[in-house]
Design a protein that fits this description.
This protein is of the alpha+beta class. It is 56% helix and 17% strand. It is elongated.
């Protein structure tokens, strides 16, 4: 019997071609591949350099923003400290003429009772003006409904009229910008017991 090799199958026939395609490039093809790699590398290094420059730029901007924020915070803290320290400056300036008037009244040797009274009235006007400029308002609630936010009841007395009405003011109260500095000391009415 004769040895006969079967004809190569299509897969076997294609295999040598695949091997041919995988063969290393010839010397003429090698420089082209190196040029392609050389073209790619500069663009990658350029991109990396650009990215590093942008990163440095953003880092610098972040540092500047952080420093500016810290400066604003420090300035605000200084302003708060100064505001607390010198908050009474305007009021103190308004009180200086009042003090000057009182000292002048005490320095007068032969003042009459009438001239002293007039001096005290003028000094009181100066004081009221100083209070108004500092937004300090007087609370004199005689005849008003009792308000526990602005009044302090010392006692309750049976009286005609509506209960919880202020019938006597022992000491005036004061508000600073609508906030109670000192409540008015008052006596309030209470209902009479039914007979």
């Amino acid at each position: 019997m004769q040895d006969q090799t079967p004809p190569p199958s299509p897969a076997e026939h294609a295999a040598p071609e695949l091997v041919e395609n995988v063969t290393p490039p010839t010397s003429a093809e090698a420089p082209v591949a190196e040029e392609q790699v050389a073209d790619i590398l500069p663009s990658l290094t350029e991109q990396l350099r650009q990215a590093e420059l942008k990163a440095a730029e953003h880092h610098d901007a972040w540092l500047r923003a952080k420093a500016e924020t810290e400066n604003v915070r420090r300035r605000a803290q200084d302003d708060i400290t100064k505001a607390g320290k010198f908050a009474a400056d305007k009021f103190a300036q308004a009180m200086l003429p009042v003090k000057d008037s009182l000292e002048a009244a005490l320095a007068t040797d032969n003042a009459t009772l009438e001239s002293l009274k007039q001096g005290v009235e003028l000094t009181l006007k100066q004081l009221v003006s100083a209070f108004q400029s500092a937004n300090v308002t007087e609370v004199n609630p005689l005849g008003e409904k009792f308000d526990p936010n602005k009044h302090q009841a010392i006692s309750a007395v049976e009286a005609d009229g509506e209960p919880n009405t202020v019938i006597n003011v022992l000491q005036k109260g004061y508000l600073l910008h609508e906030r109670t500095m000192r409540p008015a000391l008052v006596v309030v009415s209470k209902a009479k017991p039914a007979a």
